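3.2 Worked example (two chains)
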Amino acid sequence: MEILKIKNTVLQAGRPKVAVPLMSQQPQEIIAECERAALLPCDLIEWRADSYLSGIADLEEVLQEKDFYLDFLKILDDLEYIAADKPLIFTMRSVQQGGMLQLLQMQKAEIYQLVARSGLAGLIDVELPASAQTADDICEDGGISLREQIDEIHAFGGKVICSYHEFDRMLAPEEILGRIHIMQAAGADVFKIAAMAVTKEDAESLLKTTAFLHQHGIGPLVMMAMGEWGKTTRVAAGRYGSCITFAAGQEASAPGQVDVFTMLKWLNDYYGEES
């Protein structure tokens, strides 16, 4: 399936929908950042919960406390209410893939289940481990496979954006195809690849691979090259088959990410203004 509708937002190839990440650590700051993001010209809001969780002292002990989950759901509920018709993407980005969180996969899986059960997030971001060769490989830290994580989220009615990030280099086309194949096999609803462009040719390679996937009916896709050379892909990838781009509201969450107003101008210049 190449089209996915969440609330009133349709994810499909063409002019990409704009997602703004929330990067604050403290609950009051997260809420305030979301209030500002809700007023921005964006289509989705991403809660980078790894930023919040990384600021909690003795996190593994705190995860054993019932009050943590009540507080966590209160933040999520507030964000969903403030975001209103803009779908919420829930993300816990690991240190290994450019985020701030160090948690065992089983611990993350429990939080994914909580979020899915709440019904408050339109999409839940689940990372493809770098070591995974199949959808059924047990994660490096043990306990659960990618397929099992996604099945558990689906069991509670959640939708999954499966993601993979490479910050050191551009992935070769066959590497991208291999990772997307694992995501498909695991049952993900949306497939995301972000890799670093060191040259102009890197960015062009990612766009060509995006077009190949789209031509073969694989999607919805979220494809982008990071870094200075990758900036053009954040705009143009929609024409090749991607459906979401990310732009900073208060703070960028990845190299090459521009602010939301610059992104809006670039999208209007490239695709024409929306009616």
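3.2.1 Second chain
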Amino acid sequence: MNKKSTYFFNDRMTQFGLVLLFILIVTAIFSVFVSTANVQNLDNRLLPTGESNHILGTDHFGRDILLRMIVGAGVSIKVGLLASSISLLLGIFLGLIAGYFGKWVDSLIMRFTDIMMAFPVLLFLIAISATFEPSLNTAMIAIGAVSWPPMARLMRSQVLILKSRDFISSVEALGFSHIRILFFHILPNCLGPIIVTFTLGISGAIMAEASLSFLGLGVQPPTPSWGSMINEGKDFLRIAPGLSVYPGIAIAITVLAFNLVGEGLRDALDVKLEK
């Protein structure tokens, strides 16, 4: 085991983040087998924590809160991974092209990137989700489609640094194609920053999905989502605060887990991300 991996696994905060992340992933996998999260029982509505075999109580329709949160974990992890993957691919592609070819290509892509970053992400998400039919797939695509600018700027800066290195000049002199240089010589040397940015981006995607679902533009009922659960519980804060508090805590823990792992990777790989 090299020094980087030793540092990563020995850091206490990273270890804590990995434990949280492992629990979340196991929960997300288990959510596939949960089939009773939407079963309603009005006789058991708004039960308090621990009553009648409901560990976290029930909501205003008598649905088990714990089961709905487990399903919500699967939704959040799915959105985080897929939306971040879309953002990753777009950012890498545009950043590689801008940094490698330069000139008017670089100016065009970077000005478009600046325009995207000038507007609040949530505003773009609301516009896209309101234009198309709100759903889980729409939320994932929308989040991925508006979250790529930081990755593009990071990739561009990495390409500009690597493009001036001797080994790139050597492969260019050998007559290698642009595609081969970009994807077989430049991209592999950018994996450290890519992995870190991708990990940190997952938490942002989860927060974005929760925000959209809270506004009713994300995951649609009856599918549970932590954001929609907070929205449904806001009318019962006085008599049943757990309806909103529990999913809120789940979002905070999930974001914390990915951020801790991302910070650990950044320190272990000694990656300096562009602000």
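3.3 Remarks
The CA atoms of residues 109 and 230 lie 38 Å apart.
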